[in-house]
């Protein structure tokens, strides 16, 4: 359950005015900071655990990790301060299953824009502790009826998403809201129904509707997958139907590997096909694969530029 969006004006330094180099650095660390280029956005896997069993999930094959304490995990954000990162994405698994999430969000929010992905099952109970520290929020919704949505997600999920949308509408803390739909064989003919539901339920609070291609990584992929051309055609038709009413963007047929994932033990990975390739650990900058990190940063910039252009068309 991952997605990256373009940068906005809340740069890491702009939020607090802090210096970028906290603490005493060794010469080697300073050299690393000067030579390593990170992407503007890093996806933190807060936990690999989840309370759903979505059939379109591709998170089954995550590498194992040994979590650090809450303080140590908050310290991971501090160690990223010098690298011109402006956004931390909180994802999983389901991030709300981690009791440390409110503290981690609050800590990261001091210096970074925060973007929280959730399946919403726990959101109605936890929103008050989370929303003050969230700039962007993403909910998943794969159908315009409970039945269609449950085909990819689970019974009860549809109702939780609608309840969570209501909470955002009524909240004094209103992050930019994205709805993410994984387009499948089952729902690609219902996208206009889903769009209509979003217009009705979200009103002016919806920032973007993201249509995701069903990647060839999930356990049930074959049951749900569409050819990319069919996906793109359905997405274009949907964009045309809602032009001027909903901002819509959809997965490109490339750049699926344009992500940098940080795990709860500080290990960094980028996806390569069905595997995760290690690119270092935040706790030890000497382990950074500078060439690979730079390539990931370039890919993410290129992908975000293409997606922004696509959204304007
Ligand atoms: S909520 Fe996200 S992480 Fe959990 S099973 Fe569904 S797609 Fe996977």
Please report which band the strand proportion falls in: under 5%, 5-15%, 15-25%, 25-35%, 35-45% or over 45%: 15-25%
Major beta sheet, specifics? 10 strands, mixed
Q: Gyration radius, to the nearest Å?
A: 19 Å
Total number of helices:
11
Percent of residues in helices comes to 25-40%
Low-confidence spans: 1-22
Shape: globular
- Give the bound compounds: iron/sulfur cluster
How would you classify the helix and strand content by structural class? alpha/beta
> Distance N terminus to C terminus?
26 Å
Strand order of the largest sheet: 7-6-5-4-3-2-1-8-9-10
What is the string of helix and strand elements? HHEHEHEHEHHEHEHHEEEEH
Number of strands: 10
Mean pLDDT equals 89
Describe the structure.
The chain has helices spanning 12-16, 27-35, 70-79, 101-109, 123-130, 146-152, 157-170, 191-202, 221-224, 228-241, 290-312; strands at residues 41-47, 87-92, 113-118, 136-140, 176-183, 206-213, 248-250, 261-262, 267-272, 275-281. Strands 7-6-5-4-3-2-1-8-9-10 form a ten-stranded mixed sheet, sandwiched between helices. Helix 3 (70-79) runs parallel beside helix 4. The model is unreliable at 1-22 (pLDDT under 50). It contains eleven helices and ten strands. It has 313 residues and is an alpha/beta fold. Bound molecules: iron/sulfur cluster. Residues 1, 50, 52-54, 57, 59, 92-94, 119 line the site of iron/sulfur cluster.
Q: Key terms for this structure?
A:
313 residues, binds iron/sulfur cluster, 10-stranded mixed sheet
